[in-house]
Amino acid sequence: MASLKELKGRINSVKSTQKITKAKQMVAAAKLRKAQAAAEAARPYAERQADVMASLAGKVAGQDNAPLLLRGSGNDQRHLLVVVNTDKGLCGGLNSNIVRAAVKKARELIAAGKTVEFYLVGRKGRAPIRRNFPDSIGHHFDTSEVRNPGFEEAEKVAAELVDMFEAGKFDIAHLVYPVFQSALVQEPTVQQIIPVPAPQATADAGGAVVEYEPGEEEILEELLPRYLKTQLFGALLEVSASEQGASMTAMDNATRNAGELIEKLTIQYNRSRQAAITTELIEIIAGAEAL
User: In this structure, are residues 239 and 188 in contact, taking their beta carbons and an 8 Å threshold?
Assistant: First the structure.
C-alpha cells in the first residue's frame, strides 16, 4: 500500500498535469475559431471553381488535345496516396484515423493488383505508415517549420506532384485528409486529384449555353493546376481546423480524467491518513491502560 507521502506526491503530480491540459484546451479553443472560419470560407470558392471546371471539362473530355491533368496517362496501374497529417500530437485519434483510411485505401489498391506509393505531408503519419508499408514511402513534404501551412505550401506540393505526374512516376493520385465537421467529428476523406476528375455539372434551369474566350483547352491549361492547388490548400485548412478541434476535445477529456483521478487519490489519501491516526490512538490508549 502506498505511503501518505507517495499519495501526496501523486496528487500533486496529477494536479500539475491537469493545469497543463487545461491550458492546452484553452489554447486549442482559441485557435479553433480562426482555423474553422478559414476552412469554411474556402469551401464555397472550391465548390464554385469545381462547377466552372465541370462546364469546361465536359466540352473537351475524351479529346486527344485535352490537357494532360484532365485526360491522364491512359493507365491506372501506379497510384500515389498524398496523405495529409498534422505535425504535432496531443490531438486524440485524428492522425490514427487518417492513417487508417490511407492504409485501407492502399490495401484495396494492392488487392486489385495496383502498385502504391505514399507522398506524406506532416510528420505524424510517417511512422505508422512506414511500419505498414516500409518500402512504399516515396516522398514527403515538411511543414514542421511553418507555423500555419497555407497556399504557399499548397503551391509547392502541387508543383511537385505535377512534375512527378508529367515525368511518369504515377498514373493516379489520391488525396487523404480529414474534413472538419465539429470539434468532435473529423471525417477522413479519400478523393482523386490527378488526373483531375471532371465534376458533375449541375443542370441549370434555363439551359443557358456558355461560350468561353479563349477556347476551353487554353482555359483548362490554367484552371486545372489552380484547381489542384485549391484542393491541396483546402486539405491543409481542413487538417488545421481538425487538429485544433481534436486537440481541444482530447485535452478536455484529459482534464476531466485528471480531476477524477485526483478525487480517487484524495479519498485514498484521507482513508490512509485516518487509518494511521486510528492506529496511533489505539496504541496510545493501549499504553495508557497498561500503566
Answer: no
- In angstroms, the CA 283 to CA 53 distance is 88
Active site residue 31: no
The residue written with cell numbers 493520385 in the block is 173
The pLDDT score that the predictor gives to residue 115 is 92
Residue 1 lies in a domain: no
Domain extent at residue 180: 21-200+209-251
How many domains would you assign to the chain?
A: 1
pTM of the complete model: 0.81
* 18-56 residue pLDDT tens: 999 999 999 999 899 899 999 999 889 888 888 877 777
User: In which region does residue 168 sit, left (phi positive, over 0), alpha (psi from -120 to 50) or beta (all else)?
Assistant: left
Is residue 122 within 8 A of residue 281, CB to CB? The reply is no
Round to whole Å and give the CA distance between 185 and 24.
19
Q: Is 110 within a domain?
A: yes
Instruction: Residue 221: count other Cβ atoms within 10 Å of its Cβ.
Output: 16
220 found inside a domain: yes
Task: Exactly one of 7, 28, 91, 102 is catalytic; name it.
Answer: 91
Q: Is position 276 within any domain? A: no
- For residue 257, how far is the Cα from the chain centroid? 25
How many Cα atoms within 13 Å fall on the side-chain side of residue 200?
2
